[in-house]
Design goal:
The chain has four helices and nine strands. The chain is α+β, with helices and mostly antiparallel strands. It is globular.
């Protein structure tokens, strides 16, 4: 509940996808001012793992927890499909169960998933290894095929595709990962648990 400000007993935060405040103004721009977001920003500053998925990613950029911004897809239409992405950084609280360069398949569904930043900021993201996921076959015009980024500390990650829709065999997309068909998103959440318990 966005008006709740109590994060006591919370070990990690996932800001989910959806349409916050009808996506008025800009996606995530109003939700960024929800009372709970002040606590999320503080907790992230202390190192709490925070993940933003789709609209959650947009909210995290609006809250300045992550760099860049998300704008309308370059083809100006809503996109819903299985999407192949490459894992570019495994040194985060949310990706330590993947291999660098591994390709996974997760659903994506967005109309404003086009990641943008200034050329200088894009160079910084690349140079500091802050790109976490990259599209294989850019679906929406995102700069440098970026599908997800992280903060410098690695505890905050945002991505446009939906890993939570690829966590159960038989219900997620087909994947090139062999016998783990349809569960490529599961390791994002397993990574966070590993980070928290030190496994």
């Amino acid at each position: 509940w966005h008006k709740d400000v109590d994060l006591r007993g919370v070990d990690a935060v996932v800001v989910p996808g959806g349409f916050s405040y009808g996506d008025y103004l800009r996606c995530g721009a109003i939700a960024r001012f929800s009372p709970v977001m002040g606590r999320v920003v503080e907790a992230a500053g202390r190192g709490m793992p925070v993940l933003g998925i789709c609209n959650g990613f947009q909210i995290l950029t609006e809250a300045h927890l992550l760099p860049g911004a998300l704008i309308r897809n370059d083809h100006q239409t809503f996109l819903c499909r299985e999407q192949r992405v490459r894992v570019e950084s495994t040194s985060t609280a949310w990706t330590n169960r993947y291999a660098d360069g591994e390709e996974i398949v997760v659903p994506m569904k967005n109309g404003e998933g086009n990641f943008i930043a200034s050329p200088e900021e894009l160079d910084r993201l690349e140079g500091e290894g802050l790109v976490v996921f990259r599209y294989v076959g850019n679906p929406n015009g995102s700069a440098r095929d970026i599908a997800g980024v992280r903060n410098e500390r690695g505890n905050v990650v945002g991505l446009m595709p939906h890993p939570e829709h690829a966590v159960e065999p038989g219900f997620g997309p087909d994947s090139a990962a062999g016998p783990r068909t349809g569960v490529d998103g599961l390791r994002i959440f397993q990574s966070a648990i590993s980070s928290l318990v030190g496994a």
